[in-house]
Design goal:
Length: about 120
């Protein structure tokens, strides 16, 4: 019985604060749900077709294209080497060749130019 009286006291004394807290909690939940729902992306590879003409005109080999695909997925040189069954030095050689062919200064600019040309999803 005493617990009920304490609850009634707190609910009357701090009714507005409790209501405001519940509304804030509801809006926080709604915001989190909207953020997850609206920022979810569909898989980019669903309808992707590689621009073969750009590959040929730039002189990018099929192995370099595989390395570029792994770069776009965010893999490190060691991960790419393991996936392609080659040494990390070979991967570095392919990457430097890609930089030269795409006229890029680094990984991010190479991936951006490759996406712009339609080489990777």
């Amino acid at each position: 019985m005493l617990e009920w009286l304490e609850f009634r006291y707190f609910s009357r004394a701090f009714g507005f604060e409790i209501f405001l807290g519940l509304v804030a909690l509801g809006f926080a939940g709604l915001g989190a749900w909207l953020a997850i729902t609206l920022t979810r992306r569909a898989p980019a590879t669903a309808g992707f077709e590689c621009n073969e003409a750009a590959l040929v005109s730039l002189g990018i080999t099929s192995r370099e294209h595989e390395v570029l695909t792994h770069l776009a997925r965010g893999h490190s040189n060691k991960q790419i080497a393991r996936a392609l069954s080659c040494s990390p030095n070979t991967v570095k050689t392919h990457i430097s060749s890609l930089y030269r062919k795409l006229e890029a200064a680094g990984r991010v600019s190479a991936i951006d130019k490759a996406r712009l040309l339609g080489l990777i999803p």
